[in-house]
Design goal:
With about 325 residues, the protein is an alpha/beta fold. The protein is built from six helices and nine strands, in the order E-E-H-H-H-H-E-E-H-E-E-H-E-E-E. The strands form two sheets. A seven-stranded mixed sheet has the order 5-4-3-6-7-9-8. A two-stranded parallel ribbon has the order 1-2. InterPro entries: SAM-dependent_MTases_sf (IPR029063).
Length: about 325
């Protein structure tokens, strides 16, 4: 049970019906990853958003310069972890990283690559999160409101959060009465503080490990960084563990050249760059979602799928 109060922390106010324009330009200053908690004021007394709990500590984590869109970098671990270049033996990296923290051996080079790629933060950090601009308070305003609607409508009692990061926006939602577990491939600097305040967090590779059963599983902005041959088996694991899945998808619109894409023309390995995917279409075949929450990005949305139904076309 989480009992922290947010009455002493600053708030961010915005009009409930209009939802102020959300900034989408990537920051170009050096990102520090300085956690500054934001809470929003909601007019509905007693709502989950009104009762949001602050959990982000005032910590500072050194980050990378956010000029990702203007430069081209290799996604190899050598780029993101230059200090490993001075290891005494060529096998030092493999020795230290060939097992995930759950104790299960990683048999796939892609899973090994994924662990290393995502364990050093995102180049496009916002001021209030080290998990990328898409997790910031501004960018998730509408998402948080609609997410609370889903929790209430579907009477969610158990919630899995795959790729939870530092809980920058999830921590703004009151999860009282909900059994929440957050999973990520590595531990964030603020996890100890989060755990002290009641959050269950586990280091776990969702592409190789079964999750506990849950009413709802949210997996936001994860599959867009993974190749299809990692997404497909992960979806099947999710199907076995969750009744409902809320995850990132895009709508392919070939009538507009900048919005047309193919599910079959994506990356071949995990990447900090993202590639769009339409989960309603082959090879994923989830069909049309029950709910679509639009994101402030062309043809991108969070879709809610009933995982008790088999994939379409099967």
């Amino acid at each position: 049970m989480i009992t922290t109060s947010n009455s002493s922390l600053p708030t961010v106010q915005y009009h409930e019906s209009s939802w102020d324009q959300i900034a989408t330009s990537w920051p170009t200053r050096p990102a520090t990853g300085d956690y500054s908690f934001y809470s929003q004021v909601q007019p509905q007394e007693g709502s989950r958003l009104e009762r949001a709990k602050p959990v982000l500590p005032d910590s500072r984590v050194l980050g990378l310069s956010s000029l990702w869109d203007q430069t081209s970098h290799s996604d190899s671990w050598e780029y993101f972890l230059p200090q490993t270049q001075n290891n005494d033996s060529a096998g030092h990296f493999e020795k230290n990283y060939d097992e995930v923290s759950t104790g299960q051996r990683v048999n796939s080079e892609k899973q090994l690559h994924s662990t290393e790629i995502f364990s050093h933060g995102w180049p496009d950090q916002a001021a209030d999160t080290v998990c990328g601009w898409g997790s910031s308070e501004q960018h998730t305003r509408l998402i948080r409101k609609k997410f609370v609607d889903i929790l209430n409508k579907y009477q969610v009692k158990t919630l899995n959060d795959a790729g939870c990061g530092d809980l920058a926006w999830m921590s703004m939602i009151d999860l009282e009465g909900i059994d929440y577990v957050g999973y990520d491939i590595y531990e964030r600097v603020n996890w100890a503080e989060l755990q002290e305040r009641g959050y269950q967090l586990e280091v776990l590779d969702i592409t190789s490990t079964e999750l506990r059963p849950a009413d709802l599983l949210i997996c936001r902005d994860v599959f867009i960084h993974l190749p299809n041959d990692m997404v497909l088996p992960t979806l099947e694991r999710f199907r076995r563990s969750a009744s409902l899945l809320l995850t990132t998808s895009y709508t392919s619109d070939w009538s507009m050249s900048e919005r047309g894409f193919s599910n079959l023309e994506r990356m071949n390995e995990p990447s900090l760059h993202h590639k769009k995917l339409d989960l309603s279409l082959p090879p994923f075949n989830l069909g049309q979602p029950l709910v679509q929450i639009p994101e402030n990005s062309p043809n991108k949305y969070l879709g809610l799928w009933d995982m008790k139904h088999p994939p379409t076309g099967m």
